[in-house]
């Protein structure tokens, strides 16, 4: 499992890295894409039949776990894309210094930290499905508000979506993890928790 994953990651990363330099239609890039696809099939076959798998694919038989993983993937993509792109926008487009940029990034963390206890309480009371849905709606609305920012956007035009996104992400995190972990057998809870 480990060896096949290492081969997959190495070949895929080298292919993506070299694609811009030599051209995406070059023979070596096509070969890298084919090798990456084959290298992806090997870990899946190895992990599927292995009792002590690195990534136990049998957990995905549960629709609740699969849905929680999908939500986790989307949540992480949105969150980390914002962590990467927002500072670039604030510094390169708006011309802010790193201190101002850091201060404008704080509201997301504050919104997240303040709403995590609330997310846990409503998850305990109502289960994980509705809080996850509400959190996805709130975070989605925050991303819609990002659509309107430009080089003239005021501090409050950045702070408000940041805080709203933090609140929504907290409402997604705890409930979706609860649903996903509850869907797996007790012996797999540790594995499920690192995957989510």
Give short descriptive properties of this protein.
196 residues, mainly alpha
Quickly count the helices.
Answer: 7
Q: Roughly what is the average pLDDT, rounded to an integer? A: 87
N→C terminal distance: 20 Å
Please compute the radius of gyration using only Cα atoms.
20 Å
Strand content: under 5%
Strand tally is: 0
Largest pleated sheet = none
Instruction: Report the uncertain regions.
Output: none
SSE run: HHHHHHH
Which structural class should the secondary elements be placed in? mainly alpha
Shape: flat
Helix content: over 70%
Nutshell version of this structure?
The chain has helices at residues 2-22, 27-49, 63-93, 98-126, 129-146, 155-182, 189-195. By secondary structure, it is mainly α.
Layout of helices and strands, plus pairs?
Elements: H1 2-22, H2 27-49, H3 63-93, H4 98-126, H5 129-146, H6 155-182, H7 189-195
Helix pairs in contact: 1-2, 3-4, 3-6, 4-6, 5-6
Descriptive notes:
This protein is mainly alpha-helical. The protein is built from 7 helices and no strands. Helix 5 packs antiparallel against helix 6. The protein is flat. The relative contact order is 0.12.
């Amino acid at each position: 499992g480990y060896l096949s994953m290492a081969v997959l990651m190495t070949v895929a990363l080298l292919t993506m890295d070299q694609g811009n330099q030599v051209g995406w239609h070059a023979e070596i890039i096509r070969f890298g894409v084919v090798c990456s696809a084959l290298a992806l099939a090997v870990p899946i076959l190895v992990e599927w039949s292995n009792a002590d798998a690195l990534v136990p694919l049998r957990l995905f038989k549960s629709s609740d776990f699969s849905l929680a993983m999908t939500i986790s993937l989307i949540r992480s993509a949105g969150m980390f894309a914002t962590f990467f792109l927002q500072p670039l926008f604030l510094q390169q487009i708006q011309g802010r210094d790193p201190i101002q940029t850091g201060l404008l990034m704080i509201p997301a963390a504050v919104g997240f930290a303040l709403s995590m206890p609330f997310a846990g309480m409503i998850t305990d009371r109502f289960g994980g499905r509705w809080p996850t849905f509400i959190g996805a709606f709130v975070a989605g609305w925050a991303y819609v508000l990002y659509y309107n920012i430009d080089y003239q956007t005021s501090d409050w035009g950045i702070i408000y979506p940041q805080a709203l996104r933090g609140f929504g992400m907290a409402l997604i995190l705890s409930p979706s993890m609860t649903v996903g972990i509850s869907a797996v057998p007790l012996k797999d809870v540790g594995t499920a928790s690192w995957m989510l």
